[in-house]
Design brief:
- The structure is a single chain.
- By secondary structure, this protein is an alpha/beta fold.
- The chain has a single domain, classed as Rossmann fold (3-Layer(aba) Sandwich).
- 34% of the residues lie in helices and 13% in strands.
- It is built from nine helices and six strands, in the order E-H-E-H-E-H-H-E-H-H-E-H-E-H-H.
- Strands 3-2-1-4-5-6 form a six-stranded parallel β-sheet.
- Helix 2 links the parallel strand 2 and strand 3.
- Helix 2 packs antiparallel against helix 9.
- The longest helix is centred in the first third of the chain and has 14 residues.
- The N terminus is likely disordered.
- Bound molecules: adenosine-5'-triphosphate.
- Adenosine-5'-triphosphate binds next to helix 1, strand 4, helix 5 and helix 8.
- It catalyses: nicotinate beta-D-ribonucleotide + ATP + H(+) = deamido-NAD(+) + diphosphate.
Length: 224
Amino acid sequence: MPDWLVNQPLGVFGGTFDPVHYGHLRLAEEAADRLGLAGIRWIPAGQPALRGVPRVTAGQRLAMVRLATADNRRFAVDAAEVEAAQPSYTVTTLERLREADQCGPQQPLVLLVGADAFAGLPGWYRWQSLFDLAHLAVAHRPGFAIDAAQLPAALAACYRERLCTNPSTLSKSPSGGIVTFAMTQLAISATQIRRLLASGGSVRYLLPDTVIAYIQDQHLYPEY
Ligand code: ATP
């Protein structure tokens, strides 16, 4: 039997995490359960290619992800993008994970994205190559439909062609499929948290207390 038939898929979760919050944590936790993932590798972006400069340093965003994920045995944090000198592109991150000293070519990889990120996929560097490297799992997010009729034409065609209705198919090949999953809907965003912090509002219950303590200690997000 080929190795990949016995390999449990690994979740790959990239983001700016500026800061990490319970929307991210529930997405990862529910993806692990629903999609039968061996674990989730969290990969904070160093210099995100597609958005403005994050409000805090890459090291601070990495520290917050480490605090938020520390007590979950299924979660691991990958600091390679944070330490890299060049901008983060998901396709190059996945190419790195495919190297022999990382996951190798056969293990199924499942890139986790929210519905908003998925709709913007055609703007990503070499986006079509992502499917040669990983499957994609798209989480529902309040305010963003996963509807082929509303997607850019090239992405809609790709979505129709690759959609798998049964998540168990993810373990049968290393890459190439798309699944969607309906996670607990949490209308939490890092933008909302930064706004609240800058205006002196409470952010309790939107992100872990350990991360809030770090933000206070480091005096992060004084301005939106
Ligand atoms: P910002 O408000 O700064 O744009 P964000 O809260 O969207 O940030 P990111 O770090 O940009 O957080 O998101 C990383 C990934 O997590 C993306 O794929 C995004 O779609 C997904 N995501 C973030 N928050 C949620 C949420 N509440 N529900 C589902 N998916 C989410």
